[in-house]
Amino acid sequence: MKILMLNNEFPPLGGGTGTVNNEIFNQLKSNPNIIIDLITSAIHNNAEKTEFADRINIYKVPVNNKNIHHSSNLELIKYTLKAFWLARKLNKINKYDIVFAWSSIPAGFVALLMFLCYNLKYIVRVGGPDIPNFEERYKYLYKIITPIIKIIWRKASCLIAKCKTEKEMILNILPKLNVNIIHNGVDTAKFHPKQETLTIENPLKIICPARLIKRKGQEILIKAIHKLKSENINFQVFMIGDGDEKQNYIHLTEQLNLTENIFFLSYISRQEIIKYYQLAQIFVLPSYNEGMSNALLEAMASANVPIVTNVGGTEELVNKDNGFIFNTGNYIELYEILKQISLNTEQLIGLSRNALRTAQQFTWTRIVQQYIEILNSYIKTN
Q: Which ranges of the chain would DSSP assign to H, the alpha helix?
């Protein structure tokens, strides 16, 4: 099976989509039946080719990204043009069986062009923000790109969503599409508790690893911690990530006299972040919108008790037996949950054990097999 993959982000560039792509490569690198060429972006202005494994090559087109955490519109356009040029060149040599795009825009658009030029089938894994109206900050951009996204979706052999909510959003836009659900996975060999029994310390420690943007809702957590502190209930919070709202959140933390409670740690490598999961007892993600969070699975695999909003794939992972779900934007509800578990050690330990058991059902080995089955099914229909 020869696969051309398209993804404008791949570690160290980008966020969750690149991380998932990387994890899948780790699973596929020993598979002798699969050959993959990935076209992604170079951070600098030079083209680059690297070998991930014997049968997995990574081609980086020169985009010169200014920010490793996200791409500007101009950088996405650069990637589209350069990736299409390289995809044509590589296809003439390698004669791919199928194209796999890791987002509707820009990767899916390149896949559409390959389909129109070479009748090469393609599959699109929808990323979340590439679903029209998923993210408030892109509301004006959606007006321009939604017609293009609809064409990309219609021409695709199938779409892959990470959770039921994403699938429902897609089908609300185009009801007759073929949409499969493949959840994200977690590497339980890397992400695991430091010890068998959860360590309860005062103050309890919370980890919140997410980009510091409005959609992730960290302001809600800051307000909840402030209310708890006013009642002499103290937590330590580790905010891990960068983003447009970082300075605003730091300023709010200073205003509320929470500098001894909330620590901003910026971007941390995948390897280094493990120790923070193991240090914490609680994971909080107060997002206004989400697909299926990689960080949520990593936290649960580390035996953190998840406290998350009622968005995206959270209800497919979190329930009353392993964590808490609260309403978006409701810091009082978050405050009440944190107060409750700070006073009930036995509940915290029980939820922690169940969170770990849940995460252990989402191994990458199982998830990757689902991708292989879908790819095989569409290659055989060529």
A: 16-28, 73-94, 109-118, 139-155, 164-173, 218-229, 246-255, 270-279, 294-301, 331-342, 345-359, 364-379
What's the pTM?
0.83
Residue 17: count other Cβ atoms within 10 Å of its Cβ: 23
| Residue 96 CB-density burial (10 A; 0-12 exposed, 13-18 middle, 19+ buried) | buried
| Fold annotation for 2-185+363-379 | Rossmann fold (3.40.50)
* Alpha-carbon gap, residue 299 to 355, rounded angstroms: 9
Tokens coding 250: 């730091």
Cis peptide preceding 175, ω within 30 of 0: no
Contact status, residue 350 vs residue 337, Cβ threshold 8 Å: no
**Three-class DSSP category at 181:** strand
- Terminal-residue alpha carbon distance, the chain: 12
Peptide bond between residue 129 and the one before it cis (omega within 30 degrees of 0)? no
Per the prediction, the chain carries an average pLDDT of 92
* CATH 2.40.50.140 is the classification of domain 204-359: no
Q: Do the bridges between strand 56-62 and strand 48-53 make them parallel or antiparallel, or are there none, so unpaired?
A: antiparallel
Hunting for tokens 């890397």 — which residue is that?
190
Q: Hey, what are 355's tokens?
A: 């969170």
The yes-or-no answer to whether 2-185+363-379 and 204-359 have a common fold is: yes
Tokens of 315: 């209800």
Q: How many helices (H) and strands (E) does the chain have?
A: 12, 14
> What does the pLDDT look like over 76-132, one tens digit per residue?
899 999 999 999 999 999 999 999 999 999 999 999 999 999 999 999 999 878 888
Query: Within 13 A of 356's CA, how many CA atoms are on the CB side?
Result: 21
18-51 residue pLDDT tens: 889 999 999 999 899 999 999 999 988 889 999 9
Domain spans, the chain: 2-185+363-379, 204-359
Asked whether 211 and 287 are in contact (CB, 8 A), the reply is no
Which tokens sit at 305?
A: 């008790």
Neighbours of 202 (CB within 10 A): 9
Q: Which structure tokens are listed for 193?
A: 């508790």
265, 205 Cβ separation under 8 angstroms? no
CA nearest to 149, candidates 180, 104, 106: 104
Give the Cα separation of 370 and 374 in Å (integer): 6
